[in-house]
Amino acid sequence: MESAELEYAVIADAYEKIEATTKRLEMTDLLVDLLKKTPKNVIAKVVYLTQGKLYPDFVGVEIGVAEKLAIKALARASGIRQNVIEEDLQKTGDIGETAQKLLAKKKQTTFFQKTLTVQHVYATLDKMAKTTGSGAVDSKMALLAGLLSDASPREAKYIMRTVTSKLRLGIADMTVLDALAIAYGGGKENRELIERAYNISSDLGRVANVVAEKGLEGIKKFQVMVFEPIRPMLAERLSSPEEILDKLSGKCVAEYKYDGERVQAHKKGNDIELYSRRMERISDQYPDAVELVRNNVNAEEAILEAECVAVDVETGELLPFQELMHRRRKYGVNEAMQQYPVSLFMFDALYVDGKDLTLDAYPSRRNLLQKTVKENDRVKAAKQIKTGNVKELEEFFEEAIEAGCEGLICKSVGADSVYQAGARGWMWIKYKRDYKSEMKDTVDLVVVGAFHGRGKRAGTYGALLLAAYNHEADTFETVTKLGTGFTDEDLKRLSEVLRNHIVPRKPSRVQSTLAADVWFEPKVVLEVLGAEITLSPIHVCALDSIRKGSGLAIRFPRFTGKYRTDKTAEDATTSTEVVEMYRNQLKQIGAA
Ligand code: ATP
User: Fold this and answer.
1) Is the dihedral of CA 413, 415, 419, 420 positive or negative?
2) In the chain, what's the furthest Cα-to-Cα distance?
3) CATH for the 67-163 domain, from 1.10.3260.10, 1.10.730.10, 1.10.3720.10, 3.40.50.720
4) Known catalytic residues?
5) pTM for the structure as a whole
6) 53 CB less than 6 Å from ligand 1?
7) How far away, in angstroms, is 553 Cα from ligand 1 center?
């Protein structure tokens, strides 16, 4: 195997150019250049680094160095006094820029400098990330100082940003996939195949490695693997059983939509991992669920999906999602487990004993699921009926609500009902109560900006600018200004959380005609209850799709108190969904 070296300067040069553009196509071209220059044996590392990571998210290793430590390391490497660095940082607000500037002044007098390679930078960052225990702070600082003393000013800029988690080149997963398709996959038209590999592995590095080493043929053979989470299949929504049956060719399987947390359970012998909807490892939060999978899954290897639901210890009844939130903690897990035990409702089988099931039709997956799961009062297959009858569907819906569920998920049983990893499609359609009765509905929106508060709110944010996600364009389109529903505690928590995502100007993926006082990287997702959706001359969500020149806006939004930390910005309500909701609302008004 070749093991060629790549100079870190090459990456730094590419970053600098990428940073200078806001156009996605140019960004892609620059990334293609970089990937072509990259020896194949380091391509995975380059892909991770470019997104400011060392591993795919599900591994859970973060570089996360505090700014203070980075300052100390810079002082040690350069001999520049700490207070000089801090003073400059006050001005620039960017530790990367400060490092570059101060080192540029200094470096003129240095004669020797070792060439930094990507492999060396990566290995050092990896060591830093994995250093724990007593003395960790000093060891990390020494490692970082070592890197900085060999770095050119420009390299130092990007190393500093990477270690403090501030790289933020704005390169989305989809841009990387485009670039891989162009660089190694024979063209952008093959992006779908590559995207599927990503959707079933959540690992852009492994995907990059396979395309680069083995081309499209390798990608076609790409397999699901235990302990690599599959990106979840998601449901569309409709508001009547008639429409649902219509869409699903007259018949479907309707299942309870349990109101808990989605869990993807991976099993290999006695080893179990649970992954959340956004593919983070959550096994430590749910030791009881881990045990349930260990004891009730009859397979050596399996990947199954379940809804994890809090249950009332006294009555065994299902409890709403809010109760499950008591289980989201790092400490006191055992106490919480006693107080808020969970049940698992299994709803899909994606892999069992060597067989990838993601391309099988749903009825056959369900069949295998039932064979694989040993049911008891804590583990069950999701309750379902097969029906083509409107009345039956409506009755089953009422029953589900009665049982403490949110409604139904109606699933296609056609030959093409494969598991659409990472996609929201019409194979699954959710039917929830709130779409039925009123024009009230919750949406999950991304915070992209804020306006300064006045009066009582002076010093914090008066209103937040929220956006829906446009999946086709990979952009965030503003849809409302949110100012109500916040408790004092919320305001405090929000300014703390949002502070980490402040960016100096409107991010290129954000579409807005409003000029916010502060802009954020699209990260934080909040649940919002709106009263009505209207055409809007100001907001740009689904611009032109209902009427030329108008977007859609959500009127009278209130924060429900739910921080959707289980969703990434790309999981937020989409602009297409807002359009769908707008249309439904019109129908209801028509019907009234
Ligand atoms: P919501 O915010 O309404 O929960 P979502 O965006 O998180 O929606 P959707 O695709 O809208 O996800 O709805 C599917 C979700 O419903 C799944 O992520 C899963 O957590 C949950 N669910 C509960 N029961 C089932 C079931 N029987 N089959 C599939 N998903 C189910």
Assistant:
1) negative
2) 83
3) 1.10.3260.10
4) 257
5) 0.78
6) no
7) 25
